[in-house]
Amino acid sequence: MKKISIAAAFTLLFAFSVFAQRQAEVTVTSTYLRKAPDFNAEKLRTLQKGERVTFEQGREAGGWTYVSTSDGSVKGWILANTIQAVKSAVKMPQTPTQNPPARVLPPTQTTTVNPNASPSPITSGTPETVEADNEVLKIDTEEVSLNVRVINANSRPVGNLKDSSFRVYEDDILQPITSVTTTEVPIFNALVIDNSRSLRTQLQKVVEAGKIIIGTNKPRDEATVVRFVSADKIEVVQEFTTNKSMINNALDNLFVEGGQTAIIDAVYKAAQMVQKYQNSQKKEDVKLRTLILVSDGDDRGSLYDERLLFELLRNSFVQIYAIGFTGDLPDVPDPETGISRRQKARAFLTRLAQETGGKVYFPDSMEQLGKIALEISAELRTQYVVSYTPTNDKRDGTFRRIKVEVADASNEKRTAVTRTGRNAPVK
């Protein structure tokens, strides 16, 4: 009887030590190991997707778990929903008993064990080793990244903000921020230019503005040029390239022709192209994807409708900057809708910018284009990439409203601008 008690005690002690060695893998592209279980706590180390951490002492607090890095050099707190538990392969000695041994687990860790697993089989004679399986217990997580512009009361960009300055809300619920990228990232930029006859008098100035924007490109930035008229005349005249001379040459070769303007179709196809181009999910490969649209906003012949376009934009995370030359459009209200073509065009271009976290401009003269081009370039250089893991993990395809808030300075009002929402993924 005494021998059995000693064996049972040994098994209990061993079970605790094995459990303490359980590991987890980071499931988001990157996240932080922090000094305390708080978003504003000091960051001890950045952890990348797939990196392993070890549970420490079964400590948990408000959705945070205390872990150490794989080499044991750093210990700290990590958001529990950014990791997935891994059952390590271990050698478990089996003690002969009359009944199956009771499973002994620390209360704080029961969520990491498969509740449907059967007890280990009982053997007689010499104890043998049984290898536990390597099943990964999936915690189905996702990470959402937002391009965020921060402006002051004069609509000028604000840079050098701390991570703790940001708050992200999805459907009015505060979300756990996993990272804030403040370093300058490469820009993938599509210049989508209306070549219909309605812009024939503005085309040369538009080309000059395009060259100003391209002139600010950094060595890793890439741009493409798309001209459009009607639905059957949407053409990529220059593929993505870092070569500024090739882009400028494509701009110089733009020309006006007749056709029923298909703005919705052009934006739809260009947004698809920008989103898919070198679209890596790795945090180190993050790019700022923008579409600069120059048009009068008066769609006359698209095959797609606005609903399909905005459905695409909610999932593409491409920012749109729109420059609308709407001054020559009729401003007479339609008898049925009460809205004029000019009002409709301005509303459409404004929505494109607002839904994607971009900006819209309605220049009064061609002379304003140079200033607008420089402003767009400056804003693209002072953006933040804010990532978070949604607390609502339902994959039901529903629309989720997004709002980002940023702390005001003592003498300055600040506003965060980003996309209005996203569609949740579907199973």
Overall helicity: 10-25%
Strand order of the biggest β-sheet = 6-5-4-1-7-10
Q: What kind of sheet is the major sheet? A: 6 strands, antiparallel
Low-confidence stretches: 1-20, 88-140
Quote the average pLDDT.
80
* Number of DSSP strand runs: 24
Q: Can you tell me the CATH class of the largest domain?
A: Alpha Beta
Q: Supply Rg.
A: 28 Å
Count of DSSP H/I helices = 7
Please sum up the structure shown:
This protein has 427 residues and is α+β, with helices and mostly antiparallel strands.
Describe the structure.
With 427 residues, this protein is an alpha+beta fold. It folds into 3 domains: 2-137, SH3 type barrels (Roll), CATH 2.30.30; 144-182 and 386-423, no CATH class; 187-380, 3-Layer(aba) Sandwich (Rossmann fold), CATH 3.40.50.410. 22% of the residues lie in helices and 30% in strands. The protein is built from 7 helices and 24 strands. It has helices spanning 2-20, 203-215, 244-252, 263-276, 306-316, 341-356, 369-380; strands at 23-26, 30-34, 43-48, 52-61, 64-69, 75-79, 83-86, 91-93, 129-131, 136-137, 144-151, 166-170, 173-174, 177-181, 187-194, 222-228, 234-241, 288-295, 319-324, 359-361, 383-388, 399-406, 415-417, 421-423. The strands form 6 sheets. A 6-stranded antiparallel sheet has the order 6-5-4-1-7-10, with no helix packed on it. Strands 17-16-15-18-19-20 form a 6-stranded mixed sheet, sandwiched between helices. It has a 4-stranded antiparallel sheet with strand order 14-21-11-23, with no helix packed on it. The longest helix has 19 residues, at 2-20.
